[in-house]
Design a protein that fits this description.
Layout lengths: L5 E6 L3 E9 L4 E10 L5 H12 L16 E5 L6 E5 L3 H14 L3 E6 L5 H10 L3 E4 L9 H11 L6 E4 L6 H7 L4 E4 L13 H16 L4 H8 L4 E2 H15 L6 E6 L4 E6 L9 E4 L6 E6 L8 H7 L1 H6 L4 H16 L8 H22 L2 E7 L2 E7 L8 E5 L1 H8 L17 E2 L6 E4 L5 H4 L7 H11 L1 E5 L1
Parallel strand pairs: 1-4, 4-10, 5-6, 5-7, 7-8, 8-9, 11-17, 13-16, 17-19
Antiparallel strand pairs: 1-2, 2-3, 11-12, 12-14, 15-16, 15-18, 19-20
Length: 469
């Protein structure tokens, strides 16, 4: 039986948000809402302010009974879980490891194929990721790179957690070599050639996240008092996407774009490959549900890099040199002052344009490609990555996209590349755009794993169908 009152809180890097959810027969009714600035030095302070706003009279000293109202919460307050990936072949084990990290809600800061060199080790030490996901080789396959790379890592100054998910025939030897490090051994992400085994790695990453995120900024106090474990915010949204795809009719081919000030997350729920007799798959067939995150595409902190990335996109909109220069100056200003809001129509247009660039390039990087290849048997098409052409619905969430929806502002999402290219991106062709105007999805997502059907129906009900492409 679902409790009659549930509290959901999301502790973000800038704001801590909360909402009350009351269940009905097949969905949740959204009750009170609250938003306060995140208290970065001690996160429970902001957490309790949200609870006080949602439940008048409830303070940090208030006795808590879980039967009154269970609490679910997510967190990205440390900027998310940062992972570096070490693998073997870029298109195979390395790609699977990246997919596993993304699907666990992490941010991949670097990926290294084949043998680690001194410069790679220096880069890992400089990046200082929370986790190094170490894989490569099928079970019983290549052993050399796993053994050599384990020695390089053992001699390094890297102090984070190493998760080994490679050839299990050498797992004991790798663990012994890395015994001076914090090492976790799990199942191989690719036990057989081309076979994905992501779930054990996701679970290992989740456990490390809990250990690392709870230990800092007072989160352990929230965990003890409310008997609730935090979920990485991107993982919560990942779970919500899964719930929608599995429980809502006519939502079997869709995407979610979650755009913030620093990053843009892209989630796709659609079959990755459709055999038509003329197309062959190069590399792995990616999963039905996939997440990627772009750390250089954001509306404030990453605005300057988003502007640099989006040059071709801006040109496709007819920007001349003068207009592009004005946009660059605006991007520099808002990246240096993330709290800045546009003051005139020109600046509002620049914000819309930057949003379009973030969406387009995150979509382009998420999508697979197809290219013409000639063989002795004639012409064939070779696909790499995920085919997004059947996606017919796109959800926009995140603070800025929610505000755009409330203001009835339109955004352009191209279905063709803005510049000619040999490899054709497999982009969505015809879709409806649905805005999370009330910005409720990240909060609702906290309940998706436990109450998937209620969450899925509530999520779709909350969306506004803004435009038909």
């Amino acid at each position: 039986m679902i409790p009659q009152k549930i509290i959901c809180v999301d502790i973000g890097s800038t704001y801590t948000k909360g909402a009350v959810f009351n269940p009905t027969e097949d969905r949740f009714k959204v009750g009170a809402r609250a938003v306060v600035p995140t208290t970065v030095n001690y996160l429970p302070d902001g957490f309790y302010k949200v609870l006080e706003a949602l439940i008048p009279g409830f303070g940090s000293e208030h006795a808590y009974d879980k039967t009154d109202f269970p609490v679910f919460f997510s967190s990205s307050a440390k900027g998310g879980l940062k992972i570096a990936v070490v693998g073997l072949v870029p298109e195979m084990s390395l790609n699977i490891a990246r997919l596993a990290a993304f699907s666990a809600g992490a941010k991949v800061c670097a990926a290294f194929p084949y043998r680690l060199g001194k410069s790679n080790i220096a880069q890992i030490e400089s990046l200082a990721p929370d986790i190094l996901l170490f894989c490569g080789g099928t079970d019983g396959g290549n052993e050399r790179y796993a053994l050599e790379n384990s020695k390089m890592l053992a001699a390094s100054k890297f102090s984070g957690t190493i998760i080994y998910a490679g050839n299990n025939f050498v797992a004991d030897e790798v663990a012994n070599t890395l015994s001076s490090k914090e090492i976790v051994v799990t199942e191989n992400v690719m036990p057989d050639f081309g076979k994905l085994n992501i779930e054990p790695v996701r679970e290992a990453i989740r456990k490390v996240f809990l250990e690392k995120i709870i230990s800092g900024k007072g989160l352990n106090e929230i965990v003890k008092k409310f008997e609730a474990l935090p979920v990485p915010t991107p993982l919560a949204v990942f779970n919500l996407a899964k719930a929608i795809g599995e429980n809502v009719k006519n939502w079997s081919n869709f995407a979610i774009i979650d755009m913030g000030g620093a990053t843009t997350d892209f989630y796709s729920y659609t079959d990755a490959f459709h055999y038509d007799g003329e197309t062959v798959m190069k590399g792995i067939v990616e999963p039905l549900l996939k997440r990627t995150v772009e750390g250089d595409l954001g509306m404030r902190v990453s605005a300057e890099s988003a502007c640099e990335t989006g040059t071709d996109y801006f040109a496709s909109l007819g920007f001349d040199d003068n207009k592009l220069n004005d946009l660059k100056n605006y991007s520099l200003k808002i990246s240096e002052s993330p709290e800045y809001l546009p003051e005139n129509e020109t600046e509002k247009m620049f914000d819309r344009t930057l949003a379009g660039a973030c969406i387009y390039h995150s979509l382009l990087r998420h999508a697979g490609t197809i290219e013409e290849v000639f063989t002795i048997k004639g012409r064939i098409w070779a696909q790499t990555g995920k085919d997004l052409r059947r996606i017919n619905k796109i959800i926009g969430t995140g603070g800025y996209l929610a505000a755009m929806g409330r203001n009835n502002e339109k955004i352009i999402i191209p279905s063709e590349p803005t510049t000619p290219c040999e490899k054709i991106p497999l982009l969505p062709q015809k879709f409806t755009y649905h805005a999370d105007n009330t910005y409720v999805l990240p909060l609702l997502a906290n309940l998706a794993e436990k109450y998937p059907k209620h969450c899925a129906v509530t999520a779709i009900d909350s969306l506004i169908n803004e435009q038909q492409k």
